[in-house]
Design brief:
- The structure holds two protein chains of two kinds.
- Chain A is mainly alpha-helical.
- Chain A has a single domain (8-110), classed as Four Helix Bundle (Hemerythrin (Met), subunit A) (Up-down Bundle).
- Chain A contains four helices and no strands.
- Chain A has helices at 8-34, 44-61, 68-81, 90-110.
- Chain B has a single domain (9-128), classed as 3-Layer(aba) Sandwich (Rossmann fold).
- The chains are: A mainly alpha, B alpha/beta.
Amino acid sequence: MIDWESDPELKEMQRQFILSLHERRNLLATALAAIKPAVPDANVDEALKTIQFVAHKLAGAAGSYGFGKLTEIGGRIDDLLDEEEARKDLKNIIALSSELDALMDKVLKTGRE
Amino acid sequence: MNDQAPAKREILLAEDEEHIAKLVSFKLTKEGFSVTIAKNGQEAMDLMITKPWNLIILDVMMPYHTGWEVLKALRDSPVTWIKSIPVLMLTAKGAQKDISNAAELGAEQYLKKPFDPAELASIVRKMTGA
């Protein structure tokens, strides 16, 4: 895999990817807030689409930038949301999404998983 | 003696995730390819017919048109040079049904994200004869 320290341009690209986690966390937080049981008239389908969008994009990109755990959890959420039955298990989706969010927070703070 | 440098192999990369697009472009440019980025499925549709690309790299989950739709439009083209452009699918979707779908629609190669840029470059070199 890539030696991120070998090229300043590569290192900067990795730094920019890490910074992109801020926006991904914001999107995820908004979607998660919308599917909490206490939210009346929540547009659950739209929120799940957003969660899957964030998870899918992370599954593809994070591992390519050296963050395999983000890819692994993102991929699990993406796969889960492809299944009609699993989409109904909001508790599980919220738990996995929270795990993903915590890991993004860690990467933002430390640069590592 | 012909002292002209050989023309760079031209690649169209359809990818809406900007960090993946940057990484692919960085690696392939270093390898001597010329990379043009389409940021969504519509841009890919518009650009794919503009020149005989040596290769098109397609993401699947993109706004406006999915990579599947772009691939189908390419292969359904009545223009021979357009429909025969080689395609590499580069996607986080890795289920067997996705791989089969890519083959059925006419993609020559499939690489799952996350990817190793060195492996990507190796596949691209082989597909373009570089």
